[in-house]
Design brief:
Length: 327
């Protein structure tokens, strides 16, 4: 076997590995390796973590994963009763964490005028902030050309601009103390075009633009940025999703489906990503994960598959049913 034959075999083996192995995963290869061989979640013990959008879904389950390793938590969202429920469950998840280690901080993240006051409260309460988890946001189901421009503005204010506003204030604090960690809940829709969620997809793409710009501008190893990109997760997000009309909610329940990752598993994997300070991770059922790999690295193949199966493929992967009837 000469040198070029060896290189050819290695190349073919490499691509086959990336085609086959993701079918056995529920997250990207890098995160899977970190889960097994990387830094343990227990390394986060004692860290002060502020989670926005913590009253349900991904934020709620991340709070439980962090409570188990005795992080100090600030839980923020608009619904006080739900935040108190999450706090109670966090206290039950750990034998060591105390009542004073978890702060319920009611917050409408879209009210950017209060961000500085809330950040000051966090610092006063715990004396520091180590990790900001930007998790607040809502999804969308709508036909692209029918979306009212007011919906675009409302969703960007919630999913993008409110996050940037809070993060700019927190960055100044992190820069002052010399360390910190941004965790941003994006989506597979943040790296791929997803049908019937035009505004949502745009708002998540924008987050990548903002934070990748920050990463390149500062190149600060002491303030890592972790972009978290979940696919379909078994959480009650659909009922609160935006539609094409301002002030309207989609109002449908999410079906329980095998092609969705459980909230518990998603929360655990995000905790792994935080402990290992990954730049970006994908969390999804193997079918969605494989389609993401194709879309990212083999776009021509991905486009062929999409044209063959149509936009309904995405709807069935995401919602386990057709939620928006295409015209």
């Amino acid at each position: 076997m000469d040198f070029f034959e060896f290189i050819g075999i290695v190349t073919v083996a490499y691509y086959l590995f990336y085609i086959i192995y993701p079918w056995f995963l529920d997250c990207d290869l890098n995160l899977s390796i970190r889960e097994t061989f990387g830094q343990p979640i227990t390394n986060l013990r004692g860290k002060v973590v502020w989670i926005t959008g913590a009253s349900s879904g991904i934020g709620e389950h991340l709070a439980y994963a962090l409570a188990k390793v005795n992080c100090k938590l600030i839980l923020s969202a608009r619904r006080l009763n739900e935040l108190n429920r999450v706090k109670d469950n966090c206290l039950k998840a750990s034998n060591e964490i105390q009542e004073n280690d978890i702060e319920v901080l009611v917050m409408d993240v879209s009210d950017v005028s209060k961000h500085q006051k809330l950040l000051d409260h966090v610092i006063t309460k715990f004396g520091k902030l180590d990790i900001l988890v930007n998790n607040a946001g809502r999804s969308q189901r709508a036909i692209w050309e029918n979306i009212d421009l007011e919906v675009d503005k409302e969703m960007f204010n919630l999913n993008t601009f409110s996050i940037i506003s809070l993060s700019r204030l927190v960055y100044k604090y992190f820069d002052k103390i010399g360390h910190g960690h941004f965790v941003v809940t994006s989506s597979i829709a943040g790296i791929m075009g997803v049908p019937f969620s035009g505004t949502y997809t745009g708002s998540k793409h924008a987050l990548h633009g903002y934070f990748e710009s920050l990463r390149t501008e500062k190149m600060n190893k002491n303030i890592p940025i972790s972009m978290i990109c979940p696919g379909p997760i078994q959480t009650p997000f659909l009922s609160q999703a935006f539609t094409e009309k301002s002030g309207e909610k989609f109002g449908q329940d999410c079906d329980v489906a095998k092609n969705k990752i459980s909230g518990e598993r998603c929360g655990h994997l995000i905790a792994v990503a935080i402990a290992n300070k990954v730049n970006e991770c994908w969390i999804a059922h193997c079918t969605t994960l494989q389609l993401t790999y194709l879309g990212k690295y083999y776009p021509n193949i991905a486009q062929t598959i999409i044209y063959l199966f149509g936009p309904q493929l995405f709807q069935r992967l995401r919602d386990n049913k057709v939620t928006v009837n295409a015209k």
